[in-house]
Amino acid sequence: MVRAAVLPAVNAPLVVTDIELPDPGPGQVRVRLAAAGVCHSDLSLSNGTLRQPVPAVLGHEGAGTVVAVGEGVGHVAPGDPVVLNWAPACGTCHFCGLGEPWLCANAGAAGAKPYATLAADGTALHPGLGTAVFAEETVVAAGAVLPLPEGVPLADAALLGCAVLTGYGAVHHAAAVREGESVAVHGIGGVGLAVVQAARIAGAGRIVAVDVAAGKEELARAAGATDFLLAGEGQDTARAVRGLTGGHGADVAVECAGRAETIRAAWSCTRRGGRTTVVGIGGQDQKVTFSALELFYFGRTLSGCVYGNCDPAEDLPVLAEHVREGRFDLSAMVTDRIGLDGIPAAFEAMTAGRGGRTLVVF
Asked: Please, which residues have CB within 8 angstroms of residue 219's CB and are 6 or more apart in sequence?
């Protein structure tokens, strides 16, 4: 038996209880978690913004140590430190064939199948986003396990599984930030802090962090932001960004909140011909409107971004090198370290816009 935070139903409180995990079958790996990041996507799964069969064990950003492997698994062995990949590409679908594994049609298949049971009554449990890392141990498909390169602290490496790959990829792949360009980052949570660090690594000139919480300024500047703007009612963020960028607007804006008003603000603060990349996951009720004239006049590019448009197997070693060389500071993104019982409070803090990344440490 292992302890896990179980979501009994959509919008129900999490319950920390014992679950039964099976031995890994063919093509599966059992992992003992060292840490798991609390991501806004987990909150979206719990409240129904994103679909997830329930009851389920949530959590998709994790790192740990291999306990056992099933038949046919050769790239990891018991004792190996690993990072969990919540969107493993199948390699055979249309999108994988196009060289776009982040859009894999089958990446979410594991989340739809039960993987464990409640110890109390044998109720079948689903793994949140296929990984279920809000637990002391988990069993996942072999493709969801990536060897952790040397020199990266195991607990902090959990952030590589989602926030860092997403933020780094948004800058280096989706937006393709060039040296000297100005970047406006809207939403300074875990992903936003990763975007700021990635923009600094890319050689961005001005990096403007934008958030509704004044308390985020210190975190943003420590990550590499040159400026901080407080957003919210009565604040003309677009005008403020233009004032910091020679009156033109930012070359690149990255939206990390998933709200219609924030996406609109990110678009509006981008210069003519600039790029706006949306990373945040919003609900179906979040509608963003543009006039036909402004689409023509401004000539901006607006694009979505899934998992940073990354191939985790290729990008993880690159990120690990940045961590080893001190260019990317994982621990600076973490504002709270908690146990499983602290996840509901972490959800409340995210909803209120407080802090950076929270880590569940086992």
From this structure: 188, 193, 332, 335, 356
Q: Give the tens place of pLDDT for each residue, 274-313.
A: 999 999 988 888 999 999 999 999 999 999 999 999 999 9
Q: What distance in Å separates the CA atoms of residue 25 and residue 140, rounded to the nearest whole number?
A: 10
Check: CB of residue 42 under 8 Å from CB of residue 132: no
d(CA 54, CA 198): 35
Closest among 112, 108, 133, 140 to 38, alpha carbons compared = 133
Q: Which two tokens stand for residue 292?
A: 């036909």
Amino acid letter for position 152: V
End-to-end CA gap in the chain: 15
Q: pLDDT per residue over 89-146, tens digit each?
A: 999 999 999 999 999 999 989 989 999 999 999 999 999 999 999 999 999 999 999 9
The alpha carbon of 309 is separated from its chain's Cα centroid by a whole number of angstroms, namely 12
H runs (alpha helix) in the chain: 40-46, 94-97, 163-169, 190-201, 217-223, 237-244, 260-268, 292-298, 312-324, 343-352
Of 101, 331, 322, the residue nearest 199 (C-alpha): 322
Determine contact, residues 213/183, Cβ cutoff 8 Å. Answer: no
Assess whether the previous peptide bond of 55 is cis (omega < 30° from 0): yes
**Which residue type sits at 295?**
L
Give 229's strand partners.
210
The Cα 213–Cα 221 span in angstroms is 14
Residue 286: count of CB within 10 angstroms of its CB: 15
Identify the pLDDT of residue 284: 86
Other residues' Cβ atoms within 10 Å of the Cβ of residue 348:
11
Q: CB-based contacts of 296: which residues, under 8 Å, 6+ apart?
A: none
- Give the single-character DSSP code of 174: I
Q: What six digits make up the tokens of 343?
A: 């996840």
197 vs 283, residue with greater confidence: 197
3-state secondary structure of 212: coil
Q: Decide: residue 25, CB within 10 A, 0-12 exposed, 13-18 middle, 19+ buried.
A: exposed
Chain segment 35-60, per-residue pLDDT in tens: 999 998 999 999 988 888 999 999 99
